[in-house]
């Protein structure tokens, strides 16, 4: 159950401040108490009234307001976590120098809580030697500085410096919140199950599609975007887990806060997943792994021969990584992971329904859970929404989740949390 934590949410003076309203919402909707501490200049972008309305608490910027509460010390001492977004170049410079010339910098200095900074600024400012040195100083003191996202900036140019989306920031800071220590009083609404169900757990998630090279310029690939797998990684982070994301080719951003390893081919993915599974509690194989790879790799680009000639490509089987994990666990029951989750992108036909094929696959693969989604050219791959049915090998009830890929991911993670904590 989510214990209420006290979060100080510092707001720097950058245009990305408007995005932080959504982050505040995510914190308060999860039951946390949030004191917003904007810098004076940030109020040019988002006013005090917005922060007071969304947090339900008074908002001050200066040490000379609410002096009777000794705010400049109390806020920092009471905080379980300090999150500052957007962290501007100026604010980070002041923090690195140990300055205390407003309520926010005072609060950071007086606090022993973990501090997470989410910088946002123009690429030029982010890459400036002064900022780089300040970030290094802050990191050396144990402050977490999240790398900014790359993309369209405030003007017409693009580059590193965007504030990550609120959902990503929310997921990235979960692991800095202390594990639950107190139960909510009886009668208070319970949070969605699974919300902090994975605190202290390590979850491996594979995502995206593998590519099997034919020659230096061509490959056999698939249509997986990695959106469902990265959504699962985000949901697991939000549930408090340490997440090891093994990424094949993605058409989406890597969530902030994961331990990332990358792989291109099925064989590389097998090695990366095997390594990531060491000491992990669960593995979720959401990656679309090529079943076959070209038998031969041409070291130079395959040339056209004659007018209509075309080469014949021979394929060989790739190892089934999921089945390999199950087999390894069977031989070494203590090695884990305790829960092995497979995915099945299925289509029905005249011989059987999607679920009939999926049940057969669950038995064949021997994993604990199988997440089944019906695919067609418009369902599943690359889309924003998804519908899945989760089948359990122990005959447990089927669960069905539909909605955005983030919503489906939260459903899966809640199911996983329940099973791991059983
Ligand atoms: O047999 P099928 O490819 O439908 O199985 C899908 C599941 O098996 C997914 O979880 C996928 O990540 C995994 N898989 C694997 N190794 C393969 C092929 C699929 O681990 N070579």
Q: How many domain regions?
A: 2
Strand order of the largest sheet: 12-11-8-13-16-17-18-19
Distance between the ends: 14 Å
**What is the total tally of β strands?**
19
Enumerate how many helices there are, as a single number.
13
* β-sheet strand percentage: 15-25%
- Give the overall form: globular
CATH topology call of the largest domain: Rossmann fold
Class per helix and strand makeup: alpha/beta
Query: Mean pLDDT score, rounded?
Result: 89
* CATH class annotation of the largest domain: Alpha Beta
CATH architecture of the largest domain: 3-Layer(aba) Sandwich
The distinct bound ligands, ions and cofactors come out as: cytidine-5'-monophosphate
Biggest sheet statistics: 8 strands, mixed
Q: From the alpha carbons, calculate the radius of gyration and give it in angstroms.
A: 24 Å
CATH superfamily of the largest domain: CoaB-like
Q: Share of helix among residues? A: 25-40%
Unreliable spans are: 179-195
InterPro entries: CoaB-like_sf (IPR035929), CoaBC (IPR005252), DNA/pantothenate-metab_flavo_C (IPR007085), Flavin_trans-like (IPR036551), Flavoprotein (IPR003382)
Region (Phosphopantothenoylcysteine decarboxylase): 1-202
Binding site for CTP: 291, 301, 319-322, 343, 361, 365
Catalytic activity: N-[(R)-4-phosphopantothenoyl]-L-cysteine + H(+) = (R)-4'-phosphopantetheine + CO2; (R)-4'-phosphopantothenate + L-cysteine + CTP = N-[(R)-4-phosphopantothenoyl]-L-cysteine + CMP + diphosphate + H(+)
């Amino acid at each position: 159950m989510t214990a209420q934590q006290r979060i100080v949410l510092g707001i720097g003076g950058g245009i990305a401040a408007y995005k932080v309203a959504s982050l505040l919402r995510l914190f308060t909707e999860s039951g946390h108490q949030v004191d917003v501490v904007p810098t004076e200049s940030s109020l040019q972008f988002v006013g005090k009234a917005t922060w007071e309305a969304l947090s339900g608490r008074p908002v001050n910027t200066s040490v000379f307001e609410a002096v009777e509460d000794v705010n400049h010390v109390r806020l920092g001492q009471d905080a379980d976590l300090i999150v500052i977004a957007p962290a501007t170049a100026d604010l980070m410079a002041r923090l690195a120098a140990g300055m205390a010339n407003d309520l926010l910098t005072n609060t950071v200095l007086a606090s022993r809580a973990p501090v997470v900074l989410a910088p946002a600024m123009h690429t030029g400012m982010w890459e400036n030697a002064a900022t780089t040195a300040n970030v290094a100083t802050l990191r050396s003191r144990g402050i977490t500085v999240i790398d900014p996202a790359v993309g369209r900036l405030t003007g017409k140019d693009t580059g590193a410096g965007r504030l990550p989306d609120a959902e990503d920031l929310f997921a990235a800071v979960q692991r800095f919140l202390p594990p639950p220590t107190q139960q909510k009083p009886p009668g208070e609404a319970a949070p969605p199950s699974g919300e902090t169900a994975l605190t202290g757990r390590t979850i491996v998630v594979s995502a995206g599609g593998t590519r099997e090279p034919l020659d230096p310029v061509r490959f056999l690939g698939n249509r997986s975007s990695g959106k469902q797998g990265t959504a699962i990684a985000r949901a697991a982070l939000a549930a408090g887990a340490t997440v090891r994301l093994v990424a094949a080719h993605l058409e989406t951003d890597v969530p902030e806060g994961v331990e990332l390893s990358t792989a291109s081919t099925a064989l590389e993915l097998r090695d990366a997943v095997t390594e990531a599974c060491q000491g992990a509690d669960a593995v979720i194989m959401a990656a679309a792994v090529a079943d076959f790879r070209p038998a031969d790799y041409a070291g130079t680009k395959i040339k056209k021969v004659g007018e209509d000639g075309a080469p014949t490509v021979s394929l060989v089987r790739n190892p089934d990584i999921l089945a390999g994990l199950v087999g390894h666990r069977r031989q070494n029951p203590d090695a884990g992971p305790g829960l092995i989750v497979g995915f099945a992108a299925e289509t029905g036909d005249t011989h059987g329904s999607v679920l009939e094929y999926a049940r057969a696959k669950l038995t064949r693969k021997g994993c604990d859970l199988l997440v089944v989604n019906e695919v067609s050219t418009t369902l599943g791959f690359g889309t924003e929404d998804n519908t899945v049915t989760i089948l359990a090998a122990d005959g447990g009830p089927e669960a069905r989740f539909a909605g955005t890929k983030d919503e489906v991911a939260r459903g899966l993670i809640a199911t996983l949390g329940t099973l791991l904590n059983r």
